[in-house]
Description:
Blueprint: H1 14-23, H2 26-30, E1 46-47, E2 54-57, E3 61-65, E4 82-89, E5 95-102, E6 125-133, E7 138-148, E8 151-156, E9 162-166, E10 181-184, E11 204-209, E12 216-220, E13 229-234, E14 248-254, E15 270-272, E16 274-277, E17 301-307, E18 310-315, E19 331-336, E20 341-347, E21 357-362, E22 369-373, E23 380-384, E24 390-396, E25 403-408, E26 415-419, E27 424-429
Antiparallel strand pairs: 1-2, 2-24, 3-27, 4-5, 5-6, 6-7, 8-9, 9-10, 11-12, 12-13, 13-14, 14-16, 15-20, 17-18, 18-19, 19-20, 21-22, 22-23, 23-24, 25-26, 26-27
Amino acid sequence: MSVSRRGVMKGGAVGALSIALAGSLDSIFQTSAGADVGEAYGYGPLVPDPKGVLDLPKGFSYTAFSAQGDTIESGGLVPGKHDGTATFKGPRPGVTRLVRNHEQTDSGVKPTAPARLVYDPAAYGGTTTLDVDRNGRLISQYVSLAGTATNCAGGRTPWGTWLTCEETEGFGGQTKSHGWVFEVDPSGRLTRPEPIKGMGRFAHEAVAIDPRTHVAYLTEDAANPFGLFYRFTPRVHRGGYGSYMAGGRLEAMYVPGLPDLSVVQEPGAVFRVKWLKVPDPSAAATSTRKQFDKITRSQKLEGAWWGHGKAYFVASYSRTGDGAAADHAGQVWTYDPHRQTIELELVFKPGGRFDGPDNITVSPYGGGVILAEDGDGEQYLVGTTRKGRPFAFARNAFNGSEMTGVTFSPDGRTLFANRQDPGVTFAITGPWHRLRA
C-alpha cells in the first residue's frame, strides 16, 4: 500500500476521533486486498452515478459547485487544485461558510483579488471563501487570500479562523519568500496577506492547536533530509486574529536515540521527548530542518489534529528506497504535552483495499471517521463504523484525482469534500442515521 499526502482533520468531536485513531483505523489498513468490505455494513454498496462523477450509497446525493474555471461574480475565475478546507457558521441560519485552499504554485487559474489580499503577485495559490445553503447550493464565493504558493493543508484555530500553510520553500519567479503560514478570517474583515514568521519558514503541512494554551504543533513534508515535528509557543496567549503575529518560540522535537520515527513498528510504544530551539526560524540561509546535528525525523509528516488533550500527527509512509530507516505504510502518533511523550497509536500495513488516506474528519454519526484517499488506483472517501469496520462511502467516478478537504458542516447535516483536479467541491447529504455497525 502506498500512503500519501495531507491527512488533515478540521472540526470537532474530539473524543470520538481520538478513540478511532487509537484503535479502529487499523482494520482499514490491514484488510486483505481482495476482501469484500463495505457492503454488509456502513451505508451499503455504492450506487454508480449516472453522471460518472461521484458514486454514493443508496439514499445519498451530492451537489457539485465552485468548479475550477467557474466565473466569480466579483471578478476572475475559481482557482484550481482544491485542497484543505474548514467549515464555519455562516452569516445567517442555514448557511455554512467554507474556507478552501488551492495547492497551486506558479501555474493554473490565477486567483483574482484586491491588492490588499495579495502577498506575491507571482504566486498562484491562496484560499477561497464560500457560502452554501442547507441544500448544498452555492450562494456566494470570493478569493479571500492570493499570492501564496502551494496552499496544501493547515488547521482551524480555537478562535474560529483558518491557518493556511504553504508546502514549499520557494519557486522560480517569486517576488517574496515562501514557506509560511497565513491566517484567514472567515468573515473577510481582518485577513491580511502577512506571513506568521514566528511559525517558521519550511514546507508546512498541517497545524494542531492546543485550545487551552494556544501552543501550535506543526508538521513538515520535506526530503533531503526528511522533515521535523515542530512546536510553536506564542508570546501572546489571548487568541484572536493576529495573535500569533506577536511571535513566539519555535522548537523541533528530539527523541534521544531515535533519529527516524519509522523504525518504531509496535503500537503503544512511548518515548520521552525534548524540544530544541530552532536557531533561525526564518531559514534565511539554511532550511530549518538542516539546522540540527541531532534531531528526530520522519518521511512524509502530514496531518495534524488536536483532540483528547493531545496533538495527533501522521507520517503517511516511509520507504527505505527513499533513504528511510524502515518501511511502513503510515503511522499515527500522539504527543502528550503533560507527560512530554509521544506514543505510536497505529502502524498502517500494506495489502488493504483502501490506500493513501489524506484528509480526515470525524463523522457525527456512529463515532467513526471519514478519510479522503490520495493513493493508487481508484480514489475513495472511506468511512468507519462505531466498531471500526471500514467501508467505501464515496468513489471518485470521474478520474483518478485525489479527494481532499473532507469536513462536516457545523450542524452535521452535510459532508463537504473536494476533487482536487479538475477542482470541484461536493456537498453530500443523506440518511446519516442509517449507519450499520
